[in-house]
Structure formats: C-alpha cells, structure tokens
Design goal:
With 161 residues, the protein is mostly helical. Helix content is 70%, strand content 0%.
C-alpha cells in the first residue's frame, strides 16, 4: 500500500510541526488518530459483512443440497415401502385364505379366545411369611419395620450420668 519508513515519518512530523505549530499539533494528532481508528473500524466492519454474506451463501447452497438428498432418500423409501407392501400382501394373502377362524369382533365371543385375567400370586403374603428367619437375616431382608425416628432413637448413644 503506502511504503512509509521511519525517515519519511520523521520528515512528515517536522513539516507538521512547522506548518501547524507546537500548540495545535497535539490536538491535530489526536483528531487524525481518531479519524484513522474510525476508518479502520469501518473497513473491518465491511470485511466482516462481506464474509458473513459469503458464509450465508455457502450455507444456503449446503442447505439446498441436504434438502435434495433428503427428498431423494424419502422417495427411495416410499418406492421401497410400496414394493414391500405389495410383497407383504402377496405373502399374507395366501395365509389369510388358509385361516379358518379369524378373531370375532363381539366381546362375548372373544372371551372364548382370551381367558380372564387371574393374579399369578394369589397368596403372596402367606408365601412371603413362609421364608425362614435365618434366610431373611442372611439376605438382609427387614424383619421389623421401623420409622426413621425410631431407628435414630434406637441407635443413639446412651447418656452417661
């Protein structure tokens, strides 16, 4: 860009000192510095905006390619599903013709096929009580239920008098 060395900067400083004067030179230098800073920030903002727009264009292109790929996959799945359904109907159609007694829609007739629900462990409390105490102690099952406060009171150290 501009090829300014140390000697050229010194020459510009001396000319500015002579032309502007020593009283106004610091104020002018601050003003020039502020203007150069604003110009640099403006250039940086423009560069950032251009980079953002380029990235946005790339993202739009990527989005369109992903959407096209998704459409292609969806179409291939739909064609595969339709072929599967056709094959399934062919295979199940032979079985449906051979079945003699399909399930009825009537609840009373359906009771013939589905037995009523019965609880598997009818006497589970009695069976649980049949477990020997030595087995309960070994497997660390609780034999007596206590509240938290009772447990704390039971294991609290005794006061010595």
């Amino acid at each position: 860009m501009l090829d300014i060395g140390l000697s050229k900067m010194a020459l510009v400083g001396v000319v500015a000192l002579v032309v502007i004067g020593p009283e106004k030179l610091p104020r002018v230098a601050r003003t020039v510095g502020a203007l150069l800073g604003k110009a640099q920030r403006y250039v940086a903002d423009v560069k950032a905006e251009v980079n953002r727009s380029m990235e946005l264009d790339e993202l739009r292109k990527m989005k369109s390619t992903v959407e096209n790929a998704a459409r292609n996959v969806e179409q291939s799945i739909q064609t595969g599903a339709s072929e599967f359904e056709k094959d399934w109907k062919d295979a199940v159609g032979d079985l449906a013709d051979s079945s003699a007694d399909p399930l009825p829609d009537d609840p009373a007739a359906l009771a013939r096929y589905v037995p009523p629900y019965q609880r598997p462990d009818k006497h589970w409390r009695a069976r649980r009580g049949a477990i020997p105490q030595w087995y309960k102690a070994r497997s660390r099952l609780r034999t007596h239920v206590q509240s938290g406060a009772a447990r704390v009171a039971r294991f609290r150290p005794k006061k010595s008098r």
